[in-house]
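Person: Please work through this fold.
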Amino acid sequence: MADQTSVQAAIKEAQQQGQGTGIGSSGKDVSTEQSLGVALTWINRDIHEKDIMKKAAELGLPYIDIAHVPINADLLSLVTKEDVLKVSVMPFMRIGKHLRVAVVDPNNAESLGVIQKWSSEGIDVEMNLCSQEGLTEAVKVYDAQRAVVQKELVTSIEDTSRSAFEKEIALLADLKSKIETVSSDESLNLIEVGAMKTGASDMHFEPSEKSMRVRFRIDGVLHPVFELSRDVAGNVINQLKYKCRMKMNIANVPQDGRYSFELNGRKIDVRVSSIPTQYGESFVCRLLDSGKSFLSFEEMGFQGRSLEKMNALPGLSHGMILVTGPTGSGKTTTLYSLLTRFALPESKVITLEDPIEYHLDGISQSQINESAGYGFADGLRTILRQDPDVVMIGEIRDLETASVAAQAAMTGHVMLSTLHTNSAVESIPRLVNMGLAEFIAAPALHTIIAQRLVRRLCVCAEKRPMTDAEKTQFTADLEKIRGVVPDFGVTLPVEILSPKGCEICSNTGYRGRVVIAEMLGVDHEMQELILAKASAGKLYEAARKKGMITMQEDGVLKVLQGITTMEEVFAATNVLV
């Protein structure tokens, strides 16, 4: 019976010598590169299992007829089905840290590499000899079992029965004991459904020394759900990596993946990102509902002149529209909402994304593939040969992409994209600093939208009188707005709304989010300033004279309208209270 010492010895010998005793019928030494081929040769020669039993005895290894052994699906999350067939190693039993695996060739370099990885994680690996024919049959049986398990997963929830997320999280905490007893596939399924029922946008799996914390991001705020033991968490994470096709034996470099599941007849795409940490891999899973319906601009939070400009944009014939802001500020949602309005029967709309987040009817969506040389710049050149009217690229990251996009905007195309800047005005010097010439940026740009998301007050919000300090602050803010928009009609209210908390909002006082935004139109005067290499300050002054309301001022108006609070506005616009 092979112990840990013998496994390590075999690994060391294979690594140092690059060869070992193969399992060929001749009993002669063969290289590790040839051993799998030798195993396949046996199958072609129709060698029976008894010959494998005999060879196992010669090698001092236990024999296993793997085709007739029940396989725990959780164990196959340690290695993908494709890798099982590639490296000819299949784990079939685990008790604590002791793992029994079936191998076709105990001296194969790839097989030993997988086993060494498990051994380095403190797992006591016991090799059992099997035939290639038996291993192939075992994979078929596993696939059949897995198909049955998938049918038993939760695929629907009643929207009308959804309670506040606080209650849903409490129910998930109660399910923790169940999660620790069911298969890893079922465990991940319960977490996914819980995330959807709470309205979460992201699932976070964060390892610590003794456990793994699971948290959901709801309305932009992270909420703890429960902690899983290291063993259970390991199974769930292996299942997650398996589903999103990450490399199972890699844990020390970042990885990205994607998978999907069905809920209420809708496809939910999950975008997965991992990074190595002190205690293992940390994962963030972004949930993207393909059945999501995009709100109107007014429902999103645009109002006044900004709303008028947003509603006018779909009539644009050419020019560049940029949406700016940090990650999580709703840029993609705004872009998609614009796209749905551009997608008319007489228009050709194409997107270039990394990755495709939502699938839209009537729009051709293309996903970049950097490893295949299909990046934003090259992809955009290809797209422009498809005779589009409107093009959306996920992000302008470099000068090459910016240049191609700007040239397209000047030659009869509407270009939509995102940029990472803090304000609308800052987008112009950002493009110039990227290397885009002013004489190209000026005629290409049409509209720049900078935005943030703030939490919306729940219906339970209660009125309260303003403090003297608030009256002074709001009066000053309104005067600034009237200096920009003389005919502005909002007056200072006597009372404002404050968060209270109820069962509907899980006692947070907030439910849902709303956009606060500023919009900069690039007209002839702004173009002249850009061509004259005006500073950001000069551009800002010109924009204000033309009636641009800043994000913070837009937030103040929403506070006075009872939509949100100043605490939310200050937090979103990075201004200290």
